[in-house]
Structures are given as structure tokens and as C-alpha cells.
Amino acid sequence: MEILVCARRVPDTSENEISLNAAGNDIERDELVYSVNEADNYAVEEALQIRDRVGGNVTVATIGGEDDEEILRRELAMGANQAVLISDDAFSGSDGKGVATILKDFVRKGRYDLILTGVQADDGAAQVGGMLAAMLDYPFASLVNSIALEDGKLKVSREIEGGNREINEIDLPCVLSIQTGINEPRYVGMRGIRQVASAPIPTLGASDLGVDQGAVGEAAARVKRVDYFVPALSKGAEMLDGSREENADKVLELVAAKGGLK
Amino acid sequence: MTRIFAYIVHRGGIVDDSAAELFAAARKIDASGLPTAIVTGCGADLDAACNSLTSSFREIWKVSHEALTYPNAELVRQALVNILPANSILLVSHDHFGIDLSPGLSIKLGSSFVSDVLAIDGLEGDSLKLGRQEFGGQVSTHVHCDISSGAVINVRPGAFKPEQSAPITGLVVDKSSTVGALTARRRYLETIVAEAGDVDITKHTVLVSIGRGIQEKENVSLAEELAEALGAAVSCSRPVVDAKWMEKSRQVGSSGKTVKPKVYLACGISGAFQHLAGVKGNPFLIAINKNPKAPIFQVADVGIVDDVLEFLPELTNKVREMRGVAAK
């Protein structure tokens, strides 16, 4: 099984307080801790587990710049067979459709049975996997939280409402967007990352992939983010600013007042 | 004016709450017009769903096909591509079905796609002005969407309040003959219902709910001790289940349980909308989070910026003291 995982490097929202920059046109990125997008990391782990069961190769690709190479090294250290950086100035400012277009051209340069993405990244759009599948005319399933391979067919479970699971059979090749929690991604230490420090990571640009430059980048984007802002607090919480002990007293008083003590 | 459609989800003939929200969202795009509902399915359930929409939608497009009995996104997409007029705007609820359907549908229609929209500021020429959030709700953005070739807009559940409007008498129009051929390369097999857990969090008056801020499995006991002292139950948000620190049956949210407690203590929970979607009945919400920018503080009644690992034992001690039990 030849498996491609599309991953992204994003600011780690569990590690960062996100704030706006002075100009208000972007978030303040100077002090941010970046890591591989959480759902993408689960996708890589899932790909590795499938490969280890049935054989084949796992390729991890990301669209970005030099800084993004660090997540590719991390995924190589996890056990991916190869990693590719897709990078070109012409790609910057692409909307979701532009990103899917670039990936579509990359996929067509290779031969993959299974393509995995994380269900969503930092923009919460959950769009690239489904768009990529439609461009390739491959079947697609989103929010996948388990994958079983039986007789050359995939049985996938989707996370639906109320903790229920929807079971589907899906033909290969296909695109799946992977939900967090599908597995337990293996730990990668500094030692593991050092071991792949010199592994070659090819960089491919628009001309290498045959990307139609009129279909990507800022000029082609039909969906544009025009700013970032922090909305005025509607009501907001009454913030308690006493000592820890005072706050605990107050909370206990409130819980009791609201009928919360049996 | 571009024609606006709303794709209506229904189960067993009952339309989803999102139908009224999509109607309200459509009116934000075009206050002078009324959206058209599109409902897919088969048999009596489909008829019941369509008929229940006639008091709000002027036109309901009924799309009946045996293969659409279960809403398989791949097949619904094929049907919609054949049915929708060119350059339409289609509104879809951003739930597990909308996430499955809409991105690919927009490609097949050649239209724009915007996901998880929670504000609509109107249409200027071909530019639809929308509001979204990024980074788990920590910052908001304005988005401009070019609708000259149509658009598929996924609308966040709960973001648009249903309108109170005078009932009308809408018309159900049967569009089944325009569905065309449907071929599935993804086939629905079955739905596996979530297992009941050891504790039913939907039955509790007070929930001590923990999120990523609990940091390690060993720390879950801090919440359990507080819950025991209060006579409450421990629930959690998605990252706690993803990390296998608690069972799925304890998860509150759109992919977990819907709870209606009187008091909800959100401990180290950032407040993603998928989580808040599971907190109903307007409980008194107390949030403890060390990140002062956590979105949970925007919806909480009372907030404390503190590390839950420090605050929870303090609160537990206070409860025990009050109950006259010696603190451990």
C-alpha cells in the first residue's frame, strides 16, 4: 500500500495564547511554539500502522517553506519512508481550493492507494481533503476514527453525532480525513529526530509539479481572509481576581447557591 | 439576486434544528428574499420532513431516490450537482454531514467554499462578507467570498438564531426526476451506537468537566476527588478522550454527550464550539483556565485564570471543610 499523508506545521494552540500583531493583519507569530497539526500527526501514525500491517511506503508531504521542514523530519523520525517539501513563492496566499490544487498535481506525479489528511488545521476549515478527493475524482470520507483493511477494501468508521459511529466501505484509491483520537501517536524524542537530520528531503515547486499558476496563490483565491480581530466581549464571564483560596470560597458559595450541593 | 438554497438534514422524518438556523442565515444574505429548502431521502420520512418545512420555506425541493434513504455524502453530492441551478448559494450545517459533503461539492459545482461560518455581514456585488474563527476560537476573521460562480457555505450549528416569522404556506416541488445516475464508491454499511459508560453524565446536576489543562492521566483524580466531595460526576472534552485519559462515554460535545446540568465547572477546557454544543439548558458555567484568552471565558458566567492542577485541590479542600470532613 502506497500511502500519502498531507501534513501542516501550525502554531500549537494548546501551548500558545494567540494574540494579534500591532497592524492587526495577522496573529503575533514571533513567540509562537509551532508543531505538526494535531490531526495530521494522528494521520501519520495511522499510515505507519497500516504500512506495518500490509507493507508499502508512507510519504509525508507539506506545502510551505524552509521552516516547515522540521515537521517533515519529525514524521521521518516517527517512521515515514520519505518526506517532500512542496514550496514555491507562487503558492503563497492560496485559499483552500488553491492548496487542494497544488496537492492534486503532486498526487498525480506519484501513485498512491491511500491519501490521508488531518480532519482540520488551525483555521478549522476541514476542507482540503474533500476538495482534493473531488479534484482527483476519488471517493472520500471525513472524520475517520478507525480504518480496517479487508480483501483489498477499506472499512472506515466515521465519527458522527452523540459518539455514534458510521461504518462505510470505500474503494481505493481514496482520500480520508483523520479525526484525532484514532490511535496513540508514537513518541518522538530528540534522539530520533537527530537520527534523520541528514535524510534528504526533496523540494518540489510549481514547475516540477506542473501546477497551473493561474489556479493557485493569492490572485486565484476566491475566498480571502481580510483581517484578524478579537471580538468585543459580548457579556463575558465575571472574572474572579482574588487569591486562590478566596476564589475557591466564592466558587463553593456559587455552586451552593445554584443548587449544586447535595 | 443569486438564488439561495438550504440543504436540510432530517432523521426519521424530523428535520434537524439547523433548518431554522440556515433559514436565518439565508436572510442575512438576502433580507428581501426567502431561501429554497432542498431535502433528500426516500419514502414517508422524506414527505414528512418536506411537509414540516412548508410553514417557513416558500419552496421546498423534494429529492426522492432509494439510494438517498441514508444520507451518503457522495450520493447527495452527485444529486445536488445535477439539481442545483448554476451559480447558486447553498447553505449547509457545519456538522459531520456538512464536513463530509461540502468541500467536494464546491469543487464539482465550480463554486467557492467557506467553512464553519458564524457571521454573515451581507453581500456587496459578488462579494459575500462573512465571519469565522481560527485557532480554536481564540481569534476571529472577516472573510470575503467571491460568489460570481456560486458558493457553498457551511454554517456553524447554533451561530444563527432562528427568526420569529409569520407562518406561510410553502410549496413542495418534486425534483426527483432530475437526480440523474448515482454511483457510490463509498457504501454505508451500518451505524454503531455509542456504548453506555459506567456513569451517565447526562443525569447529573453538577459536572466537573476537564479538558487538556488536566495535562496527564494521573491528574484526572483531582477532578474525581472534587466530584466525589460535591456529589457530582466527572465529564470531559475531546482531547481528554483522544489521549485515552477518560472513556468516550464521559465526553461532552457534538461528537459526545449532550448534558443539561445546573452547574458546569469547566476545568482547563478552552471552549471549542463542538464542546459547547453539548452543554445545554443554560447551566451556571464556571470556567477555570490558565489562558486568559481562552474562548470559554466569553460564554462562562464566572471565570478564574488559574492552573486547574492547583485550583481543584484547593476547592476540594473547601468542600470537605464545609461538609465537616477532615481534609486529607
Task: Provide the descriptors you would attach to this structure in a database record.
heterodimer; A: 262 residues; alpha/beta; Rossmann fold; 9-stranded mixed β-sheet; two-stranded antiparallel ribbon; 13 strands; 30% helix; 26% strand; globular; B: 328 residues; 2 domains; 7-stranded parallel β-sheet; 5-stranded parallel β-sheet; 9 helices; 18 strands
Characterise this structure.
The complex is a heterodimer of chains A (262) and B (328). Chain A is of the alpha/beta class and 262 residues long. Chain A has one domain (2-220): Rossmann fold, CATH 3.40.50.620. Chain A has eight helices and 13 strands. Chain A has helices spanning 38-54, 69-78, 96-109, 128-136, 190-195, 206-209, 217-220, 244-257, and strands at 2-6, 9-11, 34-36, 57-63, 82-86, 114-118, 140-150, 153-159, 165-170, 174-178, 203-204, 223-229, 238-239. In chain A, the strands form two sheets. In chain A, strands 9-8-7-10-6-1-4-5-11 form a nine-stranded mixed sheet, with helices on both faces. In chain A, strands 2-3 form a two-stranded antiparallel sheet. In chain A, helix 3 packs across helix 4. Chain A is globular, with a radius of gyration of 21 Å. Chain B has nine helices and 18 strands. Chain B has helices at residues 18-29, 43-52, 73-83, 96-109, 220-230, 238-242, 273-276, 296-299, 308-322, and strands spanning 4-7, 10-11, 14-15, 36-41, 59-64, 89-93, 112-117, 119-124, 127-134, 139-146, 151-155, 171-174, 186-192, 206-210, 233-236, 263-267, 284-289, 302-305. In chain B, helix 3 (73-83) crosses helix 4 (96-109) and helix 5 (220-230) packs parallel to helix 9. The longest helix of chain B is centred in the last third of the chain and has 15 residues, at 308-322. The radius of gyration of chain B is 23 Å and the shape is elongated. At the A-B interface, helix 3, helix 4, strand 7, strand 8 and strand 9 of A face helix 4, strand 7, strand 9, strand 10 and strand 13 of B.
